Amino acid sequence: MNLLRSAPRVMLAAVILGSGCAAAQSYPAKPIRVVVPFGAGGPADIYARYLGQHMQAPLGQPFVVENRPGAGSIIGTDLVAKSPPDGYTLLLMSNTHTVNESLIPKKPFVLMKDFVPVAPINSSDLLLVVHPSLPVKSVKELVALAKSKPRGLNYASSGNGTPYHMAGELFKALAGVDIVHIPHKGSGEARTSTMSGQTEMMLDAITTMAPIAKAGKVRALGTTGLQRSTVMPEVPTISEAGVKGYETTIWLGIMAPAGTPRAVTDRLNAEITKVVNRPDVKKTWSEQGAQPMTMTVVEFEKYLNGDIAKWAKVVKISGARADQ
Fold first, then answer.
1. CATH number for the domain that contains residue 184
2. What is the domain count for the chain?
């Protein structure tokens, strides 16, 4: 009797398993859309396109990158959350998303409920820069100036909840200074604002800001890693330069709408891992200041949950708010 009762469940499981395998075998049968919920020209946009170029050959389908910036990544992210879970619409995400779980709790989606992890891509340090007109040449001098002028200095970011915003809030908390946050619509706009002197400082991805600093358009004061960057070894870490314990990075990854077949996410994970492990890719990224990240789907899920918890603590300690 028990065998008879369990037979329908066994048959249903077999059908589900079979359909998942079939989906993986035929996937992909059409172009894959990668939604980048950030503006053009920033690390997320650049590496989404770079990854897409290298994924096209092994998967036999083009990767179409679509920028949908706005509301601190929420607009583009919500678009993906509401897309069919078939592996043909993916999200290029970053630690903006893990920050927003605590910084912006009232969102139209919950990251680990409405999405499934696929794979990480890379990580990089940030670079603290100031406009050349600011009379400081070190982190200590910047902190001293900021303390002498509470709310008299400002810093640019690409929007609330982004790594640039949280890097600034963490700097304020650990350095004991009050600097005004000026959010912009994207990292390109924030970068331009800092180069023009409209905003006085910024913490930006070293992959995009290093060439600008080397050209003398901004002055580099510190990097955000635990060790000096190989891209700008002459620049001390912020912790080394006086703000003890300071450390943060920007990292990128891929997620898919909840319900996407596990066989499809495993296939994508395997192909992304092959790309980021390629010697030529590693060499190119290393020269830019980016480090490849490789994890299984299960490992990436654990990493995401850990990062959400980490940034929840930073949001609480720093007192950061989405309207700052």
1. 3.40.190.10
2. 2
Those residues whose C-beta lies under 8 Å from the C-beta of residue 259, and which sit 6 or more positions away, are 85, 116
Looking up residue 79, the CATH number of its domain turns out to be 3.40.190.150
Same domain (yes/no): 170, 307:
no
Nearest to 163 by CA among 76, 97, 101: 97
In-domain check, residue 194: yes
Q: In 71-221, which ranges are continuous DSSP H helix?
A: 74-81, 95-103, 111-114, 139-148, 163-175, 187-196, 206-214
Rounded CA separation 204/191 (Å): 8
pLDDT digits (tens, 9 = 90+) for 27-70: 999 999 999 999 888 899 999 999 999 999 999 999 999 999 98
Residues near 300 by Cβ (< 8 Å), separated by ≥ 6? 117, 118, 119, 120, 253, 269
pLDDT for 318: 77
Q: Give the whole-angstrom CA distance, residue 22 versus residue 34.
A: 23
Nearest 5°: the CA angle 221, 227, 232 is 45
pLDDT digits (tens, 9 = 90+) for 173-207: 999 999 999 999 888 999 999 999 999 999 999 99
Residue ranges making up the domain that contains 206:
125-223
Residue-level pLDDT at 137:
97
Tokens read off for 90? 């993916």
- Which backbone phi and psi does 309 adopt, to 5 degrees? -65, -40
Residue 203 shares a structural domain with residue 142: yes
Give the count of beta carbons closer than 10 Å to the beta carbon of residue 257. Answer: 21
- Any alpha helices (H) in 128-229, and if so which ranges? 139-148, 163-175, 187-196, 206-214
